[in-house]
Amino acid sequence: MKNRAEAVIIGGGISGCSIAYNLAKKGMKDIVVLEKNYICSGSTGRCGAGVRMQWGTEMNCKIAKKSIEFYENANEILQYERDVEFKQKGYLLVADTDHEVDQFKKNIEVQHSCGIPSTMLSLEEAREIVPYLNTDILKGAAFCGRDGFLNPFHTTDAFYRAAKRLGVEFYTFTEATGIRTEKGRVTGVETNKGYISTNIVVNAANAYGKSICDMVGLDVPIYSERHQILVTEPVEPMQDPMVMSFGLNFYIQQSPEGSFIMGRGDDKEPKDLRVTSSWQFLEEMAKTIDMVLPPVSKLRVIRQWAGLYNMTPDKQPIYDEAENAKGFYLALGFSGHGFMFGPITGIAMSEMILKEEPTIDVSMLNLNRFKTGKLLMEPSVV
Amino acid sequence: MDENTIICRCSDVTLKEIRDLISQGYLTFDEIKRITRAGMGPCQGKTCGHLIMREIANATGQNIKDIKFQTNRPPVVGVKLGLIAEEGRNEE
Question: Where are the alpha helices (DSSP H) in A217-338?
Answer without folding.
Answer: 279-292
